[in-house]
Amino acid sequence: MSATSDYKISFTTFHNVIDNELTETATTRHTVCPSNEEPLWESPVSTDEDVNHAVDAANRAFRSWSKLSQDTRAEYLIKFADAVEANKQDFIDLLGKEVGKPPQAAAYEMLFVTGLAREIPKLRLKEEKPVDDADRTAIVRYVPLGVGVGIVPWNFPLVLGFGKLLSALLAGNTFIWKPSPYSPYSALKLAELGTKVFPPGVFQALSGEDTLGPLLTAHPGVAKISFTGSVETGKKVMAACASTLKRITLELGGNDAAIVCEDVDIDSVVAKVAFLAFVHVGQICMNIKRIYVHESIYDKFLTALVVTTKQFKIGDHTDPEAVFGPVQNRMQHEKLQKFYSQISKEGWKTALGGEPGPTQEKGFFMPPTIIDNPPEDSSIVVDEPFGPIVPVLKWSNEEDVIKRANASKLGLGASVWSKDVSRAQKMAEQLEAGSIWVNTHFELAPNVPFGGHKESGLGMEWGQVGLEGWCNPQAYWVKH
Q1: Engineered SS bond to 294: which of 147, 262, 302, 362, CB 3.0-4.6 Å?
Q2: Are 239 and 267 within one domain?
Q3: Most distant CA pair in the chain, distance
Q4: 396-439 tens-digit pLDDT
Q5: Quick one: 331 and 229 in the same domain?
Q6: In the structure, what pLDDT confidence band is assigned to residue 93 with cuts at 50, 70 and 90?
Q7: Cα gap 193→203, rounded to integer Å
Q8: What is the pLDDT of residues 184-240, one digit of tens each?
């Protein structure tokens, strides 16, 4: 196949994909559009039997898929990238309905997806020879694990699974995608596209209720779980994998700090920090969640941050000018309402927004809110709200602010902002996080790994490190 029309599919029905067959289940469920709470399509509710069929098919496929060369597997991935791009606008529209993303936010996710689709297939597992003399050779090589499972969250239901999928397949594994019950549709369509490209059993997708994840984490035929989600659930996944010693990668929550130094160009940095704090309504693990601003520029910075944030338009998934969409699901919306209720109870000072009042409007919208210099031990500083609310805090001493930034149990990302790049680098290198940035934040690339330190996770995704994470390293000795 070469013509893009060969890859076009319908986006109106949704099935599990098992062994390259679109399969139905006795029970179905549906989610709602976060913008208007209208019901979306029916989707499968997988059973233990569906899991067994998928794992069996994946293990059968692994025997032949793992024997292909990396170049051949990469050719399959490139064809799959063509198939995804042939349906790009349909995926953008689907993300709007499924996740509530306004068009520019959905297009932003697809930009990430196409970047991964084109760049990850260029990576290769490499052999090393730490010993190579007349008497003997020792090779360190990377061999695929078997059946991999990706458990994918609702906030970036395509891109966060896509990086897992491509790395797993390129390394020689087969892959089962388990989407969130809140956003099952895009994953099922990706797997349906996969039936046009991959051999049976190589890429499958199962959707269902919260009971589906434990069926996969406990299954003895699964070799690795790659999970992205909350710290609480990640700990349960890790415990479940212990009984079979499955390999795991955990990419969990974040409470990213941004430290803004006194020498910055305020207008320029505010524009970036505001976007990085509020993009996708704060529903990104790598959003800026705590903004530490030097006391000498604090008032000016806070005023500019409020002005900038007010300019972000609130709208639904059909509004091309909207920056703020809705929160993705009712559960998270209710959690945020409880979180916002602390504003008056704790006496937090708001620079913008505040507790939402009663409304008859449909949709899971929350007001963008900025908290002015709350106590360091308050929940807005300590906990990850995962919504459009952020604290701004004063600092005066470098050593102290680094200590405060590192005080969190989480360690996903952190950044330092300064015109003095050398100074900023010295500060950033003391931050305890899986990704550190200078004069930027949430900067990612397909060939650069990302993941968390401390309770933000275990292992990394993407890049060479992510690719090797889908393998067992093997020492291979040859006596001459």
Answers
A1: 262
A2: no
A3: 80
A4: 999 999 999 999 999 999 999 999 999 999 999 999 999 999 99
A5: no
A6: very high
A7: 10
A8: 999 999 999 999 999 999 999 999 999 999 999 999 999 999 999 999 999 999 999
Establish if 166 belongs to a structural domain. yes
CA 322 to CA 112: how far, in whole Å?
19
CB atoms within 10 A of CB 474: 11
Residues 181 and 285 in one domain: no
Share of residues in the chain with pLDDT > 70 (%): 99
Cα separation of 150 and 260, whole Å? 36
Instruction: Determine the pLDDT at residue 1.
Output: 42
Burial of 228 (0-12, 13-18, 19+ CB in 10 A): buried
Assigned token pair, 380: 């807005």
Q: In the prediction, which pLDDT does 97 show?
A: 96
The pTM of this model reads 0.96
Main-chain phi, psi angles of 390, to 5 degrees: -145, 140
Catalytic residue among 33, 241, 261, 285: 285
Asked if residue 196 and residue 292 are part of one domain, the reply reads: no
Is 52 within the bounds of a domain? yes
Looking at the structure, do residues 124 and 214 belong to the same domain, yes or no?
yes
Are both 345 and 279 inside the same structural domain?
A: yes
Q: Is the pLDDT of residue 2 over 50?
A: no
251 annotated active-site: yes
What is the CATH classification number for the domain harbouring 403? 3.40.309.10
> Per-residue pLDDT tens for 161-192?
999 999 999 999 999 999 999 999 999 999 99
With respect to residue 450, please indicate whether it lies within any of the assigned structural domains.
Answer: no
Residue 314 DSSP symbol = B
Catalytic-labelled residue, pool 98, 251, 461, 468: 251
CB 217 within 8 A of CB 231: no
Same domain, 303 and 199: no
| Residue 355 maps to a domain | yes
Number of domains present in the structure of the chain:
2
Known active-site residue 384:
no
Long-range Cβ pairs for the range 313-318 (8 Å, 24+): 314/365, 314/368, 315/102, 316/35, 316/36, 316/100, 316/102, 316/363, 317/33, 317/34, 317/35, 317/96, 317/97, 317/100, 317/101, 317/102, 317/103, 317/106, 318/35, 318/96, 318/102, 318/103
What's 159's domain CATH number?
Answer: 3.40.605.10
362 and 379 co-located in one domain? yes
C-alpha 408/C-alpha 410 separation (Å) is 5
d(CA 158, CA 117): 11
